[in-house]
Design goal:
four-stranded antiparallel sheet, 10 strands, alpha+beta, 10 helices
Length: 363
């Protein structure tokens, strides 16, 4: 044991027991005691595990796995074989997510399902509501839960633009749970420049020489700038120390299952009140490929048919907010500036009056 294991892992090695510390990350740590029974090696070595980060149920299952591994090596040295088996399980990226995976077994009932892809270090999740399907891959990093789970789409029968939106929102949600908050930094570019900065060389030459008062003001400005930089750095370090990463797998899947797969197929358009998605997903795909009569999503989170939203924005009164929450409407596919819309409407009405006059003249 002393020759095979690193000194920092081997804590105790006697004729009665061997104690080792297995630690890969702060969330993959375990202390293992291997007790030698009187009839060893004709009897399996006894494994006792303790951890402050791993689930108690997981430790019991690991003890059972160690016992099975030891039974394969009766009348031989067993401890190293058991140690390597234990180390492999703890090193697995699924070990910090054991509690969430256990909950998933109860949470994802048919037709929903999931499988563990150990080689890919990922969960493959199948979510289904009627004809609408969302197959996902959730990659679990080596530093999970400090590292957010990475969500990608394998198969989706939802419109392509909405699928990208869902995956982007899921990844943003995972980052908020795992990563510390971003604090404002006060560097050279974030503080107001001193007097004269950004002017031309010629303009600077025309400025009078600094007086005692101006030199004092500049020194005070530099001192305030340094104070803000130090304060921002101190606040950032304090936030990092206080930050406790939260597991993100269950939160991400709750959003994708409850708010997307189970809710969206029956979600009504906020204007026409008809379902925004037809029962047949191929109908949406055909519409998207042949015309722009698809679905639109506003920043406030509400959904509309493209034609409904276009008519709502381009007809008076202009400058209307979302019909459901009143939030101002901003969308990359539409001009929402009130003055521009009024000008276009006036031109359209003038053109229509001219056409009507011509029709009346030739009638």
């Amino acid at each position: 044991m002393r020759e095979e294991l690193p000194p920092e892992r081997l804590q105790c090695c006697t004729s009665d027991l061997v104690q080792v510390q297995i630690a890969h990350t702060p969330w993959k740590q375990c202390t293992a005691k291997f007790l030698f029974p009187p009839e060893y090696p004709d009897q399996a070595v006894i494994t006792q595990l303790a951890s402050t980060v791993l689930e108690e149920e997981m430790l019991k299952k690991l003890e059972t796995a160690c016992e099975k591994e030891a039974s394969k090596h009766f009348r031989k040295a067993q401890v190293l074989h058991v140690y390597y088996t234990l180390d492999k399980h703890i090193r697995s990226n699924f070990s910090p997510a054991f509690a969430e995976i256990k909950k998933l077994k109860q949470y994802l009932q048919p037709p929903h399902s999931f499988t563990l892809a150990e080689k890919a270090k990922a969960l493959k999740v199948h979510l289904q509501n009627g004809n609408y399907v969302l197959d996902l891959k959730l990659e679990i990093g080596d530093q999970y839960p400090l590292e957010p789970v990475r969500v990608s789409c394998i198969v989706s029968t939802f419109p392509q633009n909405l699928s990208k939106l869902f995956i982007q929102h899921a990844n943003n949600l995972a980052r908020k749970l795992a990563l510390p908050p971003t604090l404002p930094s006060y560097g050279a570019g974030s503080v107001l420049a001193r007097a004269g900065a950004g002017t031309s060389t010629q303009a600077k030459k025309k400025q009078p020489e600094q007086t005692t008062l101006s030199r004092y003001q500049e020194a005070a400005f530099q001192h305030e700038k340094e104070r803000k930089v130090i304060a921002a750095q101190t606040a950032k370090e304090a936030a990092l120390k206080k930050h406790v990463p939260k597991p993100s797998i269950m939160q991400v899947l709750h959003y994708l299952k409850e708010e997307v797969v189970e809710q969206l197929p029956s979600e009504p358009c906020c204007l026409c009140k008809n379902c925004i998605l037809p029962k047949d997903p191929m109908a949406v795909q055909a519409e998207d490929s042949e015309s722009k009569d698809g679905l639109e999503h506003l920043y406030c989170g509400h959904f509309f048919h493209f034609t409904c939203l276009k008519s709502y924005i381009t007809t008076p009164p202009f400058g209307k907010g979302c019909p459901k929450c009143g939030h101002p409407i901003h969308h990359h596919n539409f001009v929402t500036n009130k003055q521009v819309l009024e000008h276009r409407w006036a031109n359209k009405q003038a053109k229509q009056r001219e056409i009507d006059d011509i029709k009346d003249m030739f009638a």
